[in-house]
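Quick question about two entries, pasted in order.
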Amino acid sequence: MHHMRHALSLGARGLGRTWPNPAVGCVIVKSGRVIGRGWTQDGGRPHAETMALAQAGGAAKGATAYVTLEPCSHIGKTPPCAQSLIDAGVTRVVVALGDPDPRVDGRGLNMLRAAGITVDFGVLEAEAKAAQIGFLTRVTQGRPMVTLKLATSWDGRIATSTGESQWITGPQARRRVHAMRASHDAVMVGAGTARADDPSLTVRDLGIDRQPVRVVLSRALDLPLTGHLARTAGEVPVWLIHGPRADVDLRRTWETLGARLFEVPLIAGQLDPSAALAALGEAGLTRVFCEGGGALAASLLHADLADHVALFTAGLGIGADGTPSLGGLGLTRLAQASRYQVTHSEILGADALTHWRRS
């Protein structure tokens, strides 16, 4: 258990940095001593097992490897990790979770067993599944995992009646938001938020050298061409999801600025959120951090596409004339609402953060 927890902590270092590959951790142990450790590197290569084996060197012969996800068995840009473990002479492999990718899906475990290696499977499986939820969702559902972030007053408002919203929560909460951005592949907002706030959507003040992709859903691509996103699209990736009738000249302009565009169909006059996430999944994203606004948040909840909700609550009331955190959901019965359960909560300065997971 101890060594697998160590491997899980190593794998977490790659969250937001390894897509489209999973963020895996590996620890190699011999005679009770750690002789090698590794985690999936930026962009998904090298794999965790490769890094750990390189550190262990010849001492890996006769050792035990703890891996948070089934070692790959297919030949891609690098040799299969299962074969690398075999070649290194490892005698036991402890695996937390199977890999549902059709190119693997049990083949890695079978390769190890066929080579005479003892395989222990399912150690801290629930923890590994929680860590790999983005990768698993993309493989099994064709879309990234979505974390919906809401920052509200305690009466559920995100702005005053005049639109003032900076800042409802305090500096500790805002710093946590930046850390959460860093652990996701992309940060996503709707066009209304992009127009009203002119956000940069980058990770700041944390020493991060790899920024998440910035995604905006804009049906007509009517976004400010002089804003932060437009000015920096050539430096930090900007992906725009638009409807079929978006102006051709605007498409060309944004592409010239460096943005990547995705056309998706409309449902009831609005961008289809399922199609939008499917496009992001096909492009390789596994973890998306959605920061609103209210219309986009409502569309994700209505389509049952928000896997987690991170609710930051500030200690003030704004009142019924303020802007609600969610747009209309069209619910007439409570049974129509998606239910979430609290996983944990914490205090951040004067604010509270509650983590919710879809039931």
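Here is the second entry:
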Amino acid sequence: MSRLQIKGANLTPRRDSFDPIETASRDEIGALQLKRLKWTLNHAYSKVAHYKKAFDKAGVHPDDLKSLDDLQNFPFTTKDDLRGYYPFGMFAIPREQVLRVHASSGTTGKPTVVGYSRRDLDTWADLMARSMRAAGCQPGMLVQNSYGYGLFTGGIGFHYGAERLGMTVVPVSGGMTERQVRLIADFKPDVIFVTPSYLLAILDECHAQGVDPRQSSLKVAMCGAEPWTNAMREEIEDAFDLHAIDNYGLSEIIGPGVSCECIESKDGPHIWEDHFYPETIDPATGKPLADGEVGELVFTTLTKEAMPIVRYRTRDLSRLLPGTARSMRRMEKVTGRSDDMMIVRGINVFPSQIEEIILKDERLAPHFVIELRRVERLDEITVIVETRPDADNDVFAACDRDLAHHIKALIGVTASVRTVKSGTVERSLGKAKRVIDLRSKG
């Protein structure tokens, strides 16, 4: 869907509303980044014990940064580093000057804690408003915010950004899917903020209630917080007759608002490079990669006061591309995470690869999970996928056979497939859990 006129609204962003840096030259962007990067390195080194220790161990000093390329000489920051200084040891300002604290769920260990100064919160709201404007949102629009509120940065990040832009916010949060559909019908929002997997759950509920999603008031869905394919974008856009815009962020860097697609192009999120310096590295060796090569995204904050982050390894896989609708570089849609990758009999497998194959089969719904087991010291996968609600009862065996064939032909791995009735796979109320690791369960 390339049209910017949809459901009676012109969603083209006004160029006179852009921040000047959005259309600045690459030389101007680079000069600003170098100035701000020098400040960040000095701020982190002088105020955060971890960075003083890590820089000294690596034999580097903030004064060694003479060009942007010199950043690769500085050490990485990992999630384990943040957990090692739990809860407030990574703060660069006194805790009393930190106005807000967010944290990850901590499902695999201690949560990672992030803090924000007053200026950080203003920056975050400004960048979220910039992202929303790029996505086609406009002041006065009504938005249903279906991201979770709380320690997770999604709900509150989007909320304050929408208010900064001048939108009317309905803070529904995640869950209560029946109510989500009712509010869309009653309040008639122009925009919804939501994870793509949960928007599919809302779609199911529309069908259950006999509601035609294409007749809804929704014009834009700002989707993020999990990897999703362009095939899923097409599924969502066709189902709701709207623009599904990819946005990207992570709490360790700021939350949502690190990058966002522009509705004019929808060709990958533009990174707000005046506040975040991106790199890609080989996830195995840590060596820097050239723009255009697929690797692990690494970010350095350029303006964060409360908690500056230097060369944070995100584990997200993407590549850096030239800017199109804005001067700043784009990142390709995240295809997966290096720690989500399954190695099945020597073959690298990502859930996004299987999702793309599933969405090409009109009999199958985009609801699936992958069970990973170890059988006689070898890993094996089983894909459990739903049929669409209108699928015939006699298609299950054919779907099993066809999907297994396509996975083998396109990915190169043998997979067992179990096709189930619509509504069988558990729905996500936030980030989708695609892989169930059963290798340690007997």
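Reply: The radius of gyration is 22 Å. The chain has a mean pLDDT of 92. Hope that helps.
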